[in-house]
Design brief:
By secondary structure, the protein is an alpha+beta fold. About 35% of the residues lie in helices and about 15% in strands. It has helices spanning about 5-25, 55-60, 135-140, 145-155, 160-185, 190-200, 265-285, 290-310, 315-320, 325-330, 385-390, 400-410, and strands at about 30-35, 70-75, 80-85, 105-110, 120-125, 140-145, 215, 240-250, 250-260, 375-380, 380-385, 415, 420, 425-430. About 45% of the residues are buried. One of its GO terms (biological process) is proteolysis.
Length: about 425
């Protein structure tokens, strides 16, 4: 790991200390306990589900797998990390890395699950509801105060140089996975083998991915959150959609690419090229002061142009938007905030914490804010051939070229997604 990254992390921790002191003073708290969380057991079993630590805990330490541990933040004092590290021959004991950031914290290694002492007017946040009632009572603090959480969420919206460096590295690792997935597709692999190729090249195990990878061949590319992997390759290969990420020091990459197969109509490959162009155009539009809803609406306007240019809609682009045709071809939002969580916090709130809900016509939009420097967003236009969304239009939208739609249905759909930082003067695309 580079000395630059280590120095950035120390600066990041110092920044958090200053900002947390302001937030705690603003909300009248003397101390704050942040619980990392712990994995839940499968029902009637002694095996745990996959786990990732609470986002505000990771914000300080970047450790996504640490369980049963606490951070205690108090103004004027070094952060205290109560790290659960039991003596255990069943599992490898938790250890901290030999890195400079550890020296910025007071670390206590705990062989039993810790219950930290909190001074003065105290608050606790995290999955504290999962703790036993006696532990909650022993902590003696206000649990999950909404206004405090909203202020800490807002702090996470704007990334430090350290966080952006982590997101950049997560993208680099994820890109290697995407390249391997494309190669496996060219080699006629099935979904499971493409997934395994992705995991190997991005150097991660499946339980550690930031979200379940979407590896969809053919019509599965039209299932927005496709959740299975067929074992055998299909007889015909129309398309591959890979929506897959990587975590680095807690921070998530979220990248999507779509590839045309040898059996796809040529028009599908042309549409993929058009969606890449649309994605690039929307990325170029990113700068401080731009409303994300405006970008989302611009996506639909350009989708209307693509539908007309590629003979999918025989009317005007404006008509395609007005009649809801573009929404049937792309039912999801343009993107979302990205950070320690894939769909990161505060995307549907104003800076003061008040709600900023998605527009009625675009209920799936996850980000409604005005862009400001330090935000990291995804830009992910899509164009899909989803029967349940298109079928209702067959009798009401004669301007749709249904012959071409039927030819493209086996291809499922297209999504292209990049991760982008809003800078002082414009943007930086982390997904080259």
């Amino acid at each position: 790991m580079s000395a630059t990254l280590f120095n950035q992390q120390l600066d990041h921790i110092a920044h958090l200390q200053r900002e947390y002191e302001k937030v705690l003073a603003e909300h009248g708290f003397d101390s704050l306990g942040i619980y990392s969380g712990h994995a839940a057991m499968h029902f009637a079993d002694d095996h745990a589900a996959s786990f990732q630590a609470y986002g505000h805990f990771m914000h300080w330490v970047g450790l996504a797998e640490v369980q049963h541990s606490w951070l205690v933040i108090q103004p004027g004092k070094r952060p205290q990390l109560h790290l659960y590290a039991p003596d255990d021959f069943w599992h490898l004991t938790t250890k901290l890395p030999d890195e400079p950031w550890v020296s910025a914290l007071d670390v206590q290694l705990c062989t039993t699950k810790p219950t930290p002492a909190l001074s003065g007017q105290a608050a606790i946040i995290g999955d504290v509801q999962s703790l036993s009632a006696d532990i909650q009572q022993a902590l003696g603090a206000e649990r999950f105060p909404t206004a405090l959480i909203q202020s800490l969420d807002e702090l996470r919206v704007f990334k430090t140089p350290y966080e952006i460096a982590c997101l950049r590295e997560a993208n680099r690792l994820a890109i290697a996975g995407h390249q391997a997935a494309q190669a496996a597709f060219i080699g006629a692999s099935g979904e499971l083998d493409i997934q395994l190729a992705y995991l190997a090249a991005s150097r991660q195990r499946e339980s550690l991915v930031p979200y379940q990878n979407i590896i969809g061949l053919n019509e599965h590319a039209g299932v927005l959150h496709y959740q299975h992997y067929d074992l055998s390759p299909p007889k015909q290969r129309y398309s591959l959609l890979v929506d897959a990420g990587r975590r680095f020091r807690g921070y998530c990459a979220d990248i999507t690419r779509t590839h045309a197969g040898p059996d796809a109509p040529f028009s599908f490959e042309e549409l993929i090229t058009a969606l890449h162009g649309l994605k690039d155009e929307l990325v170029q539009s990113i700068s401080p002061g731009v409303g994300f809803i405006t970008l989302h609406e611009r996506m639909h306007a350009h989708l209307g142009e693509i539908l007309v240019a590629h003979d999918l809609f025989r009317g005007s682009p404006e008509q395609a938007v007005k009649e809801g045709v573009t929404r049937a071809f792309c039912p999801h939002g343009l993107g979302h905030l990205l950070g320690l969580q894939v769909h990161d916090v505060a995307g549907l709130r104003h800076p003061d914490g008040s709600p900023a809900p998605a527009p009625q016509d675009h209920p799936a939009l996850r980000l409604t804010r005005t862009l400001r420097p330090g935000m990291v967003v995804t830009i992910e236009p899509g164009l899909y051939f989803i029967p349940m969304l298109l079928e209702p239009l067959r009798d009401t939208a004669p301007s749709i070229n249904w012959t071409l739609v039927d030819q493209l249905l086996p291809c499922g759909g297209i999504r292209i997604e990049d991760n982008v930082v809003v800078t002082e003067s414009g943007f930086e695309n982390l997904t080259p």
